[in-house]
Design brief:
The chain is mainly α. The protein has three helices and two strands. It has a single domain, classed as His-Me finger endonuclease fold (3-Layer(aba) Sandwich), CATH 3.40.1800. About 50% of the residues lie in helices and about 10% in strands. The longest helix has 22 residues.
Length: about 90
């Protein structure tokens, strides 16, 4: 998927979700108000692609703030590693 298409999806999800993290609910604008250098929310696959989640289905896309993204990424990495060990 091109970076332009990904940015377009992020803009649509941001509008749909009012700029809020789908895990904790924090508003991206609120974070930026408190810390102008804070990282923007990231566009996330709610069900990871390696677990069968769709790459572009709007129902599988949501925004995550940096702390929630970090926690979810660690959890997904652990599950992926466990799946690889079971498969070998």
């Amino acid at each position: 998927m091109s970076s332009g298409a990904w940015r377009s999806l992020k803009a649509k999800v941001t509008r749909r979700d009012n700029g809020c993290c789908y895990r904790c609910g924090i508003d991206q604008a609120e974070i930026k108000r408190d810390d102008p250098d804070a990282r923007d929310h990231v566009l996330d696959h709610i069900t990871p692609r390696f677990e069968g989640g769709s790459a572009t289905d709007m129902d599988n896309l949501g925004l995550l703030c940096e702390p929630c993204d970090t926690l979810k990424s660690k959890s997904e990495a652990l599950r992926a590693n466990q799946a690889r060990k079971r498969a070998s």
